[in-house]
Amino acid sequence: MASAMEKSPEGNLRFLSQKDMEMHGVVLDAGALHAVAREAWADIRDGRAYGLKSVLLPLENELWARPELHNYRKEFEGERLGWKLSTLSSVGPDYAAVKIVGANALNRRLGRPRSMSTIALFDKVTLAPICLLDGTEISAARTATYATTMVERFLSDRHDLSAFVFGAGPIAERVILGLGIFGRDTFSKVFIRSRSVESAVQLAAKLSAHVAFPLLAVDDNAELGSCDLVITASNAKKPVFDDAEANPRALTLHLGGDETPAPYIQRVLKTGRLLCDDIGMVSRRNSQSLALYFSRGQSTLETLGPLLGVTNFSDLGDEVQKLPDEPLHITCVGLPMLDLYVAKYVYETYLQARPDALFSSV
Question: What is the pTM of this model?
């Protein structure tokens, strides 16, 4: 990749690296991004921001056919590789964006992030490119806004909440930092569980000085039943908890793959509410538990889900709240529009710090 802000061969399209952002004070602060996400959701509801997502999945047997990778195969038997090339396109009032994501859990063994992103930001009217941004950290930070958005929307009047986070990667880290934007009495403790207790312990130690609540690394689900908020941000191939282990009144935020058991989904369909950030995108992606629940039953989430009460988050009226005894499950596939709004924030914040920087479209 070109160095920070290096000119492209065309002479005027520039790349903004993560290092360059940090050098000039562009911080992906959880509180600031929560406000950005609030603006994005308002525009999504009003039809001012919209987008689409496509995913290409290479054949996994092509990966393991490579002799130099054969020894890694057994290490990933219990983990979803998530080997994919995704494109997320979106348009808002002032800008458009395309994010390209290349991901593979194997990357960690090769010294790279599991998921790497590049965002191209465009002028809305001409659709001429303005700049390229390193989107890897932006993507994790944008995904974490789902947690702050849902806590504000459904749990803002609660105190002494307990949360359980599955995962210890970049998204889990950003999620925990995001929970820290709420008042000191909102969360009393947050449990972290990962495939290895060592990674959970390391994350708890890393973030303990940055949040007001205790972070407790655990190696089982014994505390899950007492938690008001459950967030799945792992890369597991199968559900990470049993329905009997969960708090029947919890809000569960699903950010990963097939992490939620079918009996849990069945129970919430009968006694609670299921939401998606976008039913169509979740259904067509068909890699998360809610979509898989319907496709394994020879239907689709997009076809049958709305008939059973599955709703888009953006379609909820302000009067709809979570009842104290109601289970609430929210599946998020990752909206392109949120990437666009965070990229816009990064770009405009950088320009404030560097008014001499010339970003010109080709």
Answer: 0.90
